[in-house]
Every structure is written in structure tokens, then in C-alpha cells.
């Protein structure tokens, strides 16, 4: 039978007090170690909230693709995607963002909470160009808090363990997923073939 938790006191009674280290690790600006994790990370998840709901979106590029402007400011190029721009629409309505940085092989992750502005300054965008292709915008994130997350989640998931990798052919392809979601209007084998050709040419 369901037993919903309805208040903070009940929740805290279930979990108890956080350890001293869990509190001490959260700071309002980057430490040298936190900066090193960001500069080594090729991947992050960007969480936003807006009138249309919540969004968690992957962002990735070579290590150091997120530029540390200073100990409270991060610059994130908005690379090519599907043009849904759900995250950007949310930021226009609510600038609060959450970032989760991952570094391959490292079981600790880094969490940043802050506020973002979408900047389309041509010089700034051009400074992030790859192969002569600049992003249309750059997210300028002002850090409110930053802290590292311990290794338990990644250890339990075996995320970096090669033996835990799932063979791609064992799960539906992108074309199959799209065909299923759209009741056959989009997707299928033709989509998979075109995607395999298109993605490498449109990374930037």
C-alpha cells in the first residue's frame, strides 16, 4: 500500500541528518579542484524549468568545452541540435539552472546550481567556433552553489565498466523509436540510414 511522505519533518525523520562533509563540500564559487573537474568534463546535463514544465538536456563536446570565465562564471556554447530549444525557452522564463558534470572514468560528479543568461554576442559565439562553425548562442551561467557528488550512483550503475555496456543492436534504433512514438508518421529504416550520414556532418 502506498504511503506518501507529505512533509519535511517526516522526510528528515526517515533519512536523518546529513554528514558534516556533505554540507562542507558546498561552496558559492569554484575551488581549484572543482574547476579542474569542469575543465576535464566532456559532458553535462542541463536542468531547467519553465511554464511548459521541466527539462533535462545533454550537452557535450571535447573536454573543456565549458569555459571557466572566473570562479563564479561558466560559458557554455549551445552546439547544434534539433532546434526544439526547450532549455533555452525555459531559461527565458526562469533563469535558474542545474548542471551535472561527468568525467569519463571518474565516479564523482560535479553539481552546479546557478542562473543563466542566453548571449548571442557575435564575438563571444565566434570564440567557441569549431571547424569555422560558431554556436548561435552561449549560456553565461552565474554560479550560486557548487559541490561534488559522491561515487555511489556511478558505482552502482557500473556506468564506466566496459563489461556493462549494452550492445546497440539489442535495443530499438532511433528510427524505430521515432516510428513508434509517431504511430509510423516519421522514422523507420530510412530515418536510420539518413541519420547515420547526417549526424557526423552536423556536429557543429
Automatic annotation (TrEMBL):
<dbReference type="InterPro" id="IPR011576">
    <property type="entry name" value="Pyridox_Oxase_N"/>
</dbReference>
<dbReference type="Pfam" id="PF01243">
    <property type="entry name" value="PNPOx_N"/>
</dbReference>
<feature type="domain" description="Pyridoxamine 5'-phosphate oxidase N-terminal">
    <location>
        <begin position="31"/>
        <end position="150"/>
    </location>
</feature>
<dbReference type="InterPro" id="IPR024029">
    <property type="entry name" value="Pyridox_Oxase_FMN-dep"/>
</dbReference>
<dbReference type="InterPro" id="IPR012349">
    <property type="entry name" value="Split_barrel_FMN-bd"/>
</dbReference>
<protein>
    <submittedName>
        <fullName>Pyridoxamine 5'-phosphate oxidase family protein</fullName>
    </submittedName>
</protein>
Amino acid at each position: 500500500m502506498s504511503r506518501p511522505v507529505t512533509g519535511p519533518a517526516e522526510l528528515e525523520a526517515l533519512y536523518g541528518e546529513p554528514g558534516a562533509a556533505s554540507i562542507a563540500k558546498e561552496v558559492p564559487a569554484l575551488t581549484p579542484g572543482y574547476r579542474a573537474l569542469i575543465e576535464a568534463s566532456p559532458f553535462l546535463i542541463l536542468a531547467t524549468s519553465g511554464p511548459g514544465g521541466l527539462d533535462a538536456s545533454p550537452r557535450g563536446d571535447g573536454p573543456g568545452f565549458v569555459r571557466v570565465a572566473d570562479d563564479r562564471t561558466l560559458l557554455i556554447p549551445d552546439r547544434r541540435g534539433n532546434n526544439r530549444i526547450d532549455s533555452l525557452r525555459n531559461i527565458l522564463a526562469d533563469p535558474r539552472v542545474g548542471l551535472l558534470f561527468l568525467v569519463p572514468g571518474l565516479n564523482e560528479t560535479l553539481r552546479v546550481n546557478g542562473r543563466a543568461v542566453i548571449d548571442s554576442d557575435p564575438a563571444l559565439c565566434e570564440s567557441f567556433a569549431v571547424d569555422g562553425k560558431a554556436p548561435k548562442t552561449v549560456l553565461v551561467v552565474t554560479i550560486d552553489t557548487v559541490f561534488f557528488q559522491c561515487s555511489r550512483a556511478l558505482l552502482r550503475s557500473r556506468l564506466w565498466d566496459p563489461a556493462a555496456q549494452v550492445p546497440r543492436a539489442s535495443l530499438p534504433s532511433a528510427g524505430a523509436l521515432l516510428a513508434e512514438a509517431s504511430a509510423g508518421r516519421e522514422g523507420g529504416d530510412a530515418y536510420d540510414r539518413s541519420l547515420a550520414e547526417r549526424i557526423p556532418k552536423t556536429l557543429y
